[in-house]
Amino acid sequence: MKKHYAKREITELCGAKRVGYFGLTQFYVALKLIAAAQSGLPVQVESIKCELPLPQFMALKNDEIRYSNPTELHGMKCQIPYVTMEKNSFKRVDDGEKQQEKMSPIMSPVSSPPSSPSSYQRVPLTYGYGKLRSGMDQMHAAPYETRQHTLQQEGSTSGSHGPKPTRRQTSLIQSLSVEREPQESNSNYPDDPWRITEEQREYYINQFKSLQPDLSSFISGSLAKNFFTKSKLTIPELSYIWELSDVDCDGALTLPEFCAAFHLIVARKNGYPLPESLPQTLQPDYLQTAFLKPKWDCALFDSYSESMPVNQQPRDLNRIEKSSIKEKTDLTAPAQDVNIDDKQALKISSVDEAMPKDLSVDTATSKDLNTLKARPRSRSYSNTSLEEAMKRVEEPPTPPPRPQKSHSRTSSLDLNKVFQPNAPAAKPGLLPPPPALPPRPLMSQVLHHNTSNDSISQTKLPGQLPGYGDFRLLEQTEQVSEIELHPQLTRTPSQTEESGSPVKKDLPHTQPPSKPIRRKFRPENQVMENQEPSSVSGTSSVPTVPTVKPHASIQKQSSKQKKAIQTAIRKNKEANAVLARLNSELQQQLKEVHQERIALENQLEQLRPVTVL
Amino acid sequence: MRKKNKNKNNKNLNASWLKPYSLLQNYPLYIRSIPAEQELKFHYTVHTSLDVVDEKVSAMGKALVDQRELYLGLLYPTEDYKVYGYVTNSKVKFVMVVDSSNTALRDNEIRSMFRKLHNSYTDVMCNPFYNPGDRIHSRAFDNMVTSMMVQVC
After folding, report:
1. pTM higher than 0.80 for the full model?
2. Which residue from A236, A226, A202 is spatially nearest to A359, judged by alpha carbons?
3. B118 vs A contacts (CB less than 8 Å)
């Protein structure tokens, strides 16, 4: 209790509240104050001016973690906590300490040295900070390691702790605060305009592919020129952007160069002034390592079967996870063309706003919509733990991923009801909602068709009445197994389905699933044919599905049919709504494109008399 | 003495684009000098030295075009300054005017400077947004020229 109170005081004192987050300065000051508090001194600014023992933190679980002694920091050559073992850092994230929103943007001022570690190293740094934060929360009296981390390029001396820490503390804090500001604007992780986010990266990669399918090859100068002039920037500006981004001056753009150029164009269109020189985060070698980084993270993520407690993660860690995950999927994407379209950022919306509409808007938005619907389905199969984490990251309230595909045959009817109510909740997938559920509508439709077929088959077949009860049981199990087969079967077609409206394909997709089932049940169905169509009334529906499915049914069919019909109706209505919305959006785009065309034609008309000369 | 006298230690760089199919059109793509106020005088100097360049180029004969050296050497020594020339294979001429009092500059250095100029110019050409014949606005080119001039002065 007392500790918490002291902590609050500390955070207040070090100015975190004023600034809104724990900047570097605040962090160091806070650590000093903690040391003061732990040594019994009152928590005041003056108390940190004297020499203090190192603040004690909880023993770290991992010995490989190296933390710098904050009192050793001086000037811009401060040590940054560096986690050597990313694996363990990830595990610690899983431990997921209680959150302090203030602490979350620690990422931003981490890069205090000008030649700060690349973002690759920043990933472990956040985890390092996360652990440090957890240590601070605990405030246990246990020594923590103060070994220097090895990665720091500017050699920070450890011996500086002894000599004149007092004078240097305040001066360094001031210098830190002064020096931090300009750099923070450049390297503030969430806000850095020169850092390519994952969504942007994927968008750029896709644009690159549209110009040059081979990702490892070049885009020629003329091709790039035509492409970039579409961005409607002035030629001198484009020339300058090219000059910045074509590092090797070969007149062609590799993928990282292209991404850098594209990013600069995007920034320029958003109003950012062009930099004097290419920012470090846009350099080709940096981007190359960023492209390669996912391979590292892949291995790391694969080692984790548990999904991370995402809700407890700070926003930046979320982003890092997402970025790592997306990068991982980004890398795996080239291997599978199917997934590429999927993983083209969901958050293209941000890029869409930035990019002018004439830059392949149609493909972007259509891909956007397609990816929105297609993404959940395909994502769920690449890496279950990852995708679960992803789903949880983006849609916390969604139900857990779809139940096991291979649940054993149960005799309870409840499974039907379990599945059916879920079906209306699921939409064809054009909208973000539950990623886990799209196949179910297919299944419910199939079920609906099946049930309708059942009734038909029943009405067709003259009834005999052998062991009624047995058949009911058998029918239940069949339905269960049918349901269980449906998700599998509907998933496979849906997985391959990438473009186009999912709703349209729903109906055709019901065809393939039903066939195997029909084949499977044939021996049993022959037995079923003898069953008397009992009080099955009502559904005089014409067989919309050509494949008649001989399936036994009982009086419960009618209620099931009603439910099925209702769910189907609901689903269709939702699909209609979605399609209508899509239609309106496309109409809007069409209008805009028309307007542009008219404007261009006008310009052409105006120029024509001039060019005639 | 030489180094302190910055005003006189001038360099003027001039590149022209020659259009072979029409009248000789030599216009500068890029001019830079230190100090800037005497630029007009150097315009004149460079323009007159173009004749010397043409003379040297044609003197080599058409048969030797491939082996022709790009560096033309001292074009025109006056009492105040020396003019060096360099022409590329695409008939783009580089003209450098150096103050005569700067005796530290040797031929090799001039050659290396022209080489650097040529490299920077090819980098400028690599930019697809640069149309040959435009004035050169490339910042990289500017920086390179500045560094070179500072080096000499």
Report:
1. no
2. A226
3. none
